[in-house]
Amino acid sequence: MWDQPPGDLAKRNEEMMKRMGVPADVGRAFLRNRWFTPTLQTALVGGLDKLNGVSGRDALIRTAASVTGEVPARFVVRCVALLAIAHREAPLVRLRMRGIVPIGEAKDHSLVAAAAVDYLYWSEEAAVFAKAPDVAAAHRLLLAQGQASDRAADEFRRAGWTLRTGVGRNR
After folding, report:
1. Each residue of 148-171: pLDDT tens digit?
2. How far from chain centre, in Å, is Cα 156?
3. What is the pLDDT of residue 168?
4. If 0-12 CB within 10 Å is exposed, 13-18 middle and 19+ buried, where does residue 160 land?
5. Cα angle value 117/91/150 (rounded, 5°)
6. What is the pTM of this model?
7. Do residues 80 and 41 make contact, with C-beta atoms less than 8 angstroms apart?
8. How far apart are CA 95 and CA 58, in angstroms?
9. Which distant-in-sequence residues (6+ apart) come within 8 Å of 135 by Cβ?
10. Following DSSP, what letter does each residue of 99-134 receive, concatenated?
11. Domain segments of the chain: what residues?
């Protein structure tokens, strides 16, 4: 990646997105998003490529195309890396978005959500996410890159989530 001109990276990423089923207009909008540098674009597309066979990757690119800021752009890239770890452990079949948070679904309909944050704390936003009807499932796993407050860990567990912290820290 470091030795390639930005135009070559864009072409490579566009071709990879096409193979993933991302509509051309969505891919172009993503590549035009100024918050995704060529490096971040390549990291995101490469991460999605690791989710081989998972449908719905276009939804994540669509969300990434609308991101407004470097912090949310990096968040999305890191979340995809967390989902790639989950996919290696237990294959996912579908990907969908809840706001900016990607959620993977396995064949057994269990869900895996990725939160690429250094510190997960309980807030009104976290409560809405944890209890949302569209993330209801018999088995739900929340992967957090960093640590979680005791309250966040307790509240997510009460809401039916299994919480794994420190995921992907050494990768």
Report:
1. 999 999 999 999 999 999 998 765
2. 19
3. 85
4. middle
5. 30
6. 0.92
7. no
8. 9
9. 98, 103, 111, 113, 129
10. TTEEEEEETTS-EEEEE--SEE---HHHHHHHH-GG
11. 6-164
**Residues 6+ positions from 145 with CB-CB distance below 8 Å:** 78, 82, 115, 116, 117, 118, 166, 167, 168, 169
| pLDDT-derived band at 6, boundaries 50, 70, 90 | confident
CA 66/CA 60 separation, integer angstroms:
10
60-94 tens-digit pLDDT: 999 999 999 999 999 999 999 999 999 999 999 99
Question: Distance (Å, rounded) from C-alpha 129 to C-alpha 135?
Answer: 8
For residues 80 and 49, is the Cβ–Cβ distance under 8 A?
no
Give the model confidence (pLDDT) of 111-148 as tens digits.
999 999 999 999 999 999 999 999 999 999 999 999 99
| φ and ψ at residue 101, rounded to 5 degrees | -95, 120
Contact 51, 80 (CB under 8 A): yes
